[in-house]
Amino acid sequence: MGDRDRNDQDRRGMTGWWRAAPLLGLYRPALVAVGVGLLFSVAGAAAVARWEDRVNRIEFENAAETEAIVMQNGMGEYISRLVALRTLFESTNDEVTRSEFETFSARLFERHPGMLRIAWLPRVNRKERAEYETAAITDGVSGYRIKSLQSGGFATAPQSDEYFPVFYSTQPKTSTVYGMDYATVPERRAVLERARDNDKVAALRTRLFEPREGGRLPDVLVAIPVYAKGTSRETIADRRRNLAGFVVGIFDLPLLIQAIRVTTGASPAVSMNVYPPFTAQIVSLEQMLPDYSSAATAPQSMRDVARTLHWSGSLKIGDTDWQVRAVPTAGGPLETTYDRAGAVLIVGLLLTLSLSTYLMLASRNSRRLSLANRRVLELAQTDILTGLPNRAFFLTRLDEMNRQLSVRGLPFSILMLDLDRFKNVNDSLGHGAGDALLRQVAQRLKSAVRANDVLARLGGDEFAVIQEAGADQRACSTELAARIAKLLTEPFLLPGHRVEIGTSIGIAIAPDHGSDQEQLLKKADLALYRSKSAGRDCFTIYDEAMSAELEARNTLEGDLRDAIAQCQLEVHYQPFVDALSGARRGFEALVRWRHPTRGLIPPDQFIPLAEETGLIVPLGEFVLRRACADAAGWPSDLAVAVNLSPIQFKEAELFEMICAALADSGLPPQRLEIEITESVLLERGVENHAFMQRLKQLGIELALDDFGTGYSSLSYLTAFPFDKIKIDKSFIRNLTHQPRSSAIISAIVTLARGLDMSVTAEGVETREEFERLKALGVNFAQGYLFGRPQPIERILFDAPVKPSRRDAA
Ligand SMILES: Nc1nc2c(ncn2[C@@H]2O[C@@H]3COP(=O)(O)O[C@H]4[C@@H](O)[C@H](n5cnc6c(=O)[nH]c(N)nc65)O[C@@H]4COP(=O)(O)O[C@H]3[C@H]2O)c(=O)[nH]1
Q1: How far is it between the farthest Cα atoms of the chain?
Q2: What's the ipTM?
Q3: From the Swiss-Prot or TrEMBL record, what is one GO molecular function term (predicted)?
């Protein structure tokens, strides 16, 4: 499909294609905005969530670490109390008495609620056993004896090399714990030995043999070795040899940690969980439940903790490490809630929603606007009457064709059409009929052109066609022009009327005749002008001679202007005679142009130009004034006939000008005849009728000139107040050969008589013609037989008119 085709289709389809356009396309910007907005919102929210995670994790880990340090410090505080007791034992020269122990220990309990019991386990050898038992009883511990723990109960300890019995204790003296030998419980013995050999605080997760009321597991047993004052503890052997006993403390671990946290104002945002130290007995993390948990809702098993965000550390108690796991407290400030990420997501979604709504509305508005624009464009490029493209569209397409020509070298033609006789239809049948005719013309033209040709109405009765490239552009365009001309000569049926018109066509071919809009239009117009002046109903292809003609015409126009200004115009007079008597009755004034180089130019060669250019107005005034002035000097029985152009009739000042010419010359109005052609009557009928009545009232005679050449509608004769009919010379020419001409003239004469008008025969050249005309009853005769138009100086007013063959020759 050619560009032109497409364009034409575009133009024709301007009201339809968009309806089929999918909404998806219309709302694409909004959908893109939704997509991009969602993407950015989610990505932004995810980024913020990650950032929140990171920040929370850092804050949480800092808090957890701080908590762990605080716990460790608290635990150190507890241990340091026991170490102080050891110092007491190692520093005194004498034995620490029970009451001293009790006093010192009581102080240790102050502000240390996690401390359950403290005991002193002296190293007792076999020989000292009885001595110790007696001393304890003496101190008030009734029935004190060194006991061993066997199958869940106490029994008197069997003989052994050494014992580590509970000798002093913070328990009431009635407690069964007194005398219990720790060395008889394997795990406790192991703790004691570790403490002894390493000279370190050793610890053990343990269970009390005498649980306190409501007591909870687990408890922690801490053993601190006490060596004899002043003895060496360098080597394990030294330590074993010099061991004096153990200071033992039992802690309630949960209570202890809780107390530390309360006194230090621990952060509730972190849940601390303390798990027992790893031992060989622990097989799975699942089974590992916390010894201490700061929040009831915290995950219990280590596996649960490991699965979530947590911090890992340890709590050192003596030589054992309890596992510390911290998690953010559920619902606490350190639990990642993704508030900011949520806010970012919501704001992003809201912005996306707003933006997409805005874009949707904007798209809809712009669609409406574009539809309105298209409609405006469509209207701006369409001729409302015929529905064809108008001048604007035609010119645009012409430009495009010229561009294509320069790019692709495709030739094309433009055909300018001007309807012949359309004006008559418009004037005689009214504008409604004219419009209907134009519509029918448009339909016929459409049927004559191809789909890819551009057919436009340029205005009035002017149409134009751009014909796309053919094999032989010249042949194609003449073939189209002939087709169009034939189509338009066929009669048109209008309501109540059958109308026959035709068309004149001018053709210009690109690139032969030019390749720009102005040139091509000008040349097609010139060719059209030629068609019109060649008698219409034909077509002409531009040739260079036309431009030369135009040039000459332009020159002529300039010259004519000068001629009017420089009085190069002359008025010649041709007599007309009374047919019966042969007496001269007057003269017709006929203008001539005495050109300085071209000589005398007849009116046929410049009157049409003067009419086109409006120069006819001053020219006509000149002729009228001169004719009146000349005629005023003639014998009083001679009239002067002056031609008035239809263009002059449109002049508002015409009546005043005629009056002024008469007044200035002194010529009586009765001696002035005004000759007008039928074309004057075709338009402005009412105004012209009134104008003619005014002239008649002055006494001026009115003659209908060139009768028979135009429409010769007899209705004009009755409708307008003519005094005279002048039969055109073309009828006279045929008079002697064609009986039909005689019949027509006879009919005109009869009609004129009936309407009380006289008849003048123009162009009488021979005596035969004259005789025939006389016989037919014409009143006046004019023609070379009676004299050619001549300057006034050459007219002999005294001499009688002698018809002569020489004149006519
Ligand atoms: N072959 C032939 N021709 C004859 C004969 N007798 C007269 N003629 C010519 O016929 C024309 C008659 O004038 P028209 O029909 O008014 O036709 C006039 C008239 O329509 C127009 N015209 C002349 N002068 C004026 C003027 O001053 N104003 C206007 N508006 N038109 C004028 O120019 C037309 C031509 O004028 P002219 O060339 O002077 O031509 C004159 C005249 O010379 C004859 O026996 N044989």
Answers
A1: 200
A2: 0.96
A3: cyclic-guanylate-specific phosphodiesterase activity
